[in-house]
Amino acid sequence: MRVGIDIGGMTIKAGLVDDRYQIVDKKTIKTNSETESAEQIIQRMAALIKELLKENHVEEEKCESVGIACPGTVDPAQGTVVYSNNIRWENVPILAWLKEQLDIPMYLANDADAAALGETLGGAAKGRKNAILLTLGTGVGGGVIMDGRIFLGPLRGGCEPGHMVIERNGRLCSCGRRGCLEMYASASALMKSAREKAEKYPGSQMNILSGNKPEAIDGRIIFEAEKQKDEAAVQVVSEYEKDLATGIANLINIFRPEVVILGGGVSAQKNYLTDQLQKLVVKECFGGELGEIPPIVTSELGNDAGMIGAAFLD
Ligand SMILES: [Zn+2]
């Protein structure tokens, strides 16, 4: 048995994972990084792990590993969260602090990296050793799996596919550059452009479906309107798909993985989105149809991917 921890902005999830990559039991606690120090949160995390093991009658020495998936920049070798905007942590030696409470081998990874590993172990890329995951949510996270392991390279910082530039002098990104994939392919970017477009097209289905509340226009409404051939929505989705396809094709040209996995809210569109992307990507990949184009699939593990991957970081 192993434990995988997924640290989010407001919750910490702990999963007890078996050797077949199945979550046997799961516990969640709420956290508030504005009122709690990192040390307090980690203290509660250790208690959560102990509770999960105890309730499932797993002795500490029988637990093979504890893995932590954390958003932001982490240093897996040092076991330190270097900087995480979501939880406002800076230089937190998380593994050292946890080891004071628990005598179990421990590992740390970026959350998107852990999710990518999880999908190759027990999800959409099961059995594949080379895969890329892009999570299309508030931002665009990403993880690269090469030869069955998270590709990190020897230097701190890791891979951030969401911050590759697809439009030089494009939209200003939170990372300081302009034109990052994240500014075009995240769920937030999709909603932003849909709301702007809906304002210009008052008769758009997007306005009708949202009850004329721009803030209620979400991914589901955008794709629903697009399926009804609403002109504004068709334009928004078409631009979105082209931008995302450019990012995916760039990654294929660099890594040529066996599979590209899409996670996050937008991936709920499943084949409707991936079939279209697959057509667009062929045209942009080096060698076109002469090269082998990996299938683009959607996540199978969803929010559990990070926990499952984290449990197998050893
Ligand atoms: Zn960026």
Explain how this protein is built:
The structure is a single chain. This protein folds into 2 domains: 2-121 and 304-310, ATPase, nucleotide binding domain (Nucleotidyltransferase, domain 5, 2-Layer Sandwich), CATH 3.30.420; 127-298, Nucleotidyltransferase, domain 5 (2-Layer Sandwich). Helix 8 crosses helix 9 (270-284). The protein is α/β, with parallel strands linked by helices and 314 residues long. The chain is globular and about 60 Å long. 47% of the residues are buried. It has helices at residues 38-55, 94-99, 111-122, 182-185, 187-200, 205-209, 219-227, 231-255, 270-284, 305-310; strands at residues 2-7, 11-17, 23-30, 66-70, 73-75, 80-84, 89-92, 106-110, 131-136, 140-146, 149-150, 259-263, 296-298. The strands form 3 sheets. It has a 5-stranded mixed β-sheet with strand order 3-2-1-4-8. Strand 2 and strand 3 (23-30) form a beta hairpin. It binds zinc ion. Zinc ion binds next to loops. Pfam families: ROK.
